[in-house]
Specification:
Elements: E1 2-3, H1 16-25, E2 29-35, E3 46-53, E4 66-70, E5 83-90, E6 103-105, E7 117-124, E8 139-148, E9 154-162, E10 169-175, E11 183-187, E12 193-204, E13 209-218, E14 224-232, E15 243-248, E16 263-272, E17 280-290, E18 298-305, E19 312-322, H2 328-333, E20 337-339, E21 345-347, E22 352-358, E23 369-370, E24 385-386, H3 391-399, H4 401-407, H5 429-437
Antiparallel strand pairs: 1-7, 2-3, 2-7, 3-4, 4-5, 5-6, 8-13, 8-17, 9-12, 9-14, 10-13, 11-12, 14-15, 15-18, 16-17, 16-19, 18-22, 19-20, 19-21, 23-24
Helix pairs in contact: 3-4
Length: 439
């Protein structure tokens, strides 16, 4: 939670709209709590869900003009039901008495609702059990594919990426980056897979490699596939291997008293054209997120060929664990492997290979406390846990609040307000140390 629980105190973050918008772009589910000035007839709190804003898909560098929200209690009969667009009145002072600077909304329907203001914004976990009696669970999955140009000069890159359920959110990108955005075609409604075309900034010579990374948030289970991966123009390049992966993690039995916060299974493997492993076709890395109520020590990895005639060979298979989501550089630099099956596995067309992970006593549990992102949480880097990785961000918050907000734009500096006095200063040091040490 970011802001206050006090109904009478607006959230006075001058970059609040940008903050919420960038959380949406990161795939977070965002809800906001509204309250009203005392003079209005409906002095109650009201919770709505934010779905979008007036910006494009790029990260925001300033506040958007308006948000699109689900607010069924305030349906305009002349507008699309449930979805309304509300403009921000940044630091607006309406004619009636108000509670000071904050983010006020100009409600046009019904007009009697006046100018409510945000008191807090809440980001919800991307991992949720939306079918307790079944096997459907909202999950986040990341697949990163290293594709190499093996023939003549290339001017672009094409790939298909998808899953076997509807996609709630996606973000696909390449490294090194290019100056032009990709052309993306969503297949099905809602989409279940994408066709993606990039134009390279220069003709890529043979041997040139590109990291393709795609994040999905999925409503049922974790599965990602790549297919038709090739450099363009079409007809000149060989097509890279096509395959699908899935990681399954069982639920923990009640009572849920384990000191677990959820985390990520990290995996790496290479695909070869031969059993000896001398003809490398591609490299791949992935992240599978599991929830706090799932078993961190037990996972099942399934890799399925999507090839129609070609046999693939899988080698250099490694599995590890991370408490926080890794970016591309961290993902490809990850080396803390817990399980490394030996040898090369033959993967015939349309068949699969299954690896069972038993990490009993193997997980590197560091001293940390499961916390939500809120005031006094000590989670200064917003990775969902309070541990030694928060020390440097805490020092930065103490020494230069402006630099802290610049370096951690999705975090609230109040995470370091350990004594609850509304400020982050030297008086919070003892509380911060106690939180990290469990005192």
């Amino acid at each position: 939670m970011y802001g206050t629980r006090d109904q009478l105190t607006p959230w006075a973050n001058p970059d609040g709209a940008m903050f919420i918008g960038n959380h949406l772009r990161a795939g977070d589910f965002v809800g906001i709590t509204l309250s009203w000035p005392l003079a209005t007839p409906n002095n109650v709190v009201h919770v709505v869900t934010v779905w979008g804003d007036s910006g494009d898909a790029d990260p925001l560098t300033n506040n958007p003009e308006f948000f699109i929200m689900t607010d069924s209690d305030r349906e305009d009969p002349d507008a699309t039901p449930d979805l309304q667009t509300y403009n921000y009145d940044n630091f607006y002072y309406p004619p009636e008495p108000n509670r000071g600077p904050g983010w006020y909304f100009d409600y046009t329907y019904p007009s009697a609702w006046g100018h409510p203001y945000i008191i807090n914004a809440v980001t919800l976990s991307q991992v949720a059990d939306n079918d307790p009696q079944g096997n459907r669970r909202v999950v986040r999955a990341t697949g990163s594919y290293l594709a190499t140009n093996d023939l003549t000069s290339a001017t672009g890159l094409h790939y298909d990426v998808g899953t076997d359920t509807e996609i709630l959110y996606y973000d696909t990108r390449i490294m090194p980056p290019v100056s032009s955005p990709p052309t993306i075609v969503e297949i099905d409604d809602p989409p279940t897979w994408l066709t993606v075309d990039w134009t390279l900034d220069f003709p890529a010579p043979p041997g040139y490699s590109v990291f393709i990374t795609t994040d999905f948030i999925l409503p049922a289970w974790n599965a990602v596939w790549y297919g038709n991966v090739h450099f363009t123009p079409d007809g000149l390049m060989s097509v890279q291997p096509a395959f699908n992966w899935q990681v399954d993690t069982p639920d923990l039995p009640p009572p849920l008293d384990a000191a677990a916060c959820g985390g990520f299974v990290v995996a790496a493997f290479k695909v070869y054209a031969d059993q000896a492993g001398t003809q490398e076709l591609c490299q791949y890395r992935l992240e599978h997120e599991y929830a706090f109520d799932q078993d961190p020590e037990s996972h099942t990895f399934t890799l399925t060929s999507r090839e129609s005639a070609t046999t693939l060979y899988i080698g250099d298979l490694h599995f590890g664990h991370s408490h926080g989501l890794l970016d591309e550089n961290e993902l490809w630099g990850f080396e803390n492997w817990l399980t490394s099956p030996q040898g090369i596995v033959e993967l015939p067309p349309q068949e699969q290979t299954v690896t069972l992970l038993d990490w009993n006593t193997l997980l590197p549990y560091p001293p940390y406390i499961c916390v939500g992102p809120g005031a006094g949480s000590a989670d200064l880097n917003c990775d969902g846990v309070a541990n030694i990785l928060d020390i440097n961000p805490f020092i930065l918050a103490l020494s230069s609040p402006a630099m802290y907000q610049q370096q951690y734009p999705l975090c609230e500096i109040t995470h370091g307000d350990m004594n609850g006095d509304g400020e982050v200063n030297i008086l919070d040091i003892n509380g911060f140390v106690q939180r990290l040490t469990g005192g």
